[in-house]
Amino acid sequence: MRKFTSGFFTGTLATAAVVAGLLMGVKKKVIEPLEEQESKIDENRKKARRKRIAR
Fold first, then answer.
1. What is the mean pLDDT of residues 20-32?
2. Rounded CA gap, 13 and 8, in Å?
3. How far, in Å, CA of 9 to CA of 26, rounded?
């Protein structure tokens, strides 16, 4: 029973580590570039508004 319990906890810990790594990878590859692109678009819109008003 002791081997089963230690194996179960080891497997659970390993699975949790894999899931956490996967989530961090998705965040770095997908979510952050989208947020960066949206912020660039917002900055360009602000600049365009300023130029339109300045004329």
1. 94
2. 9
3. 26
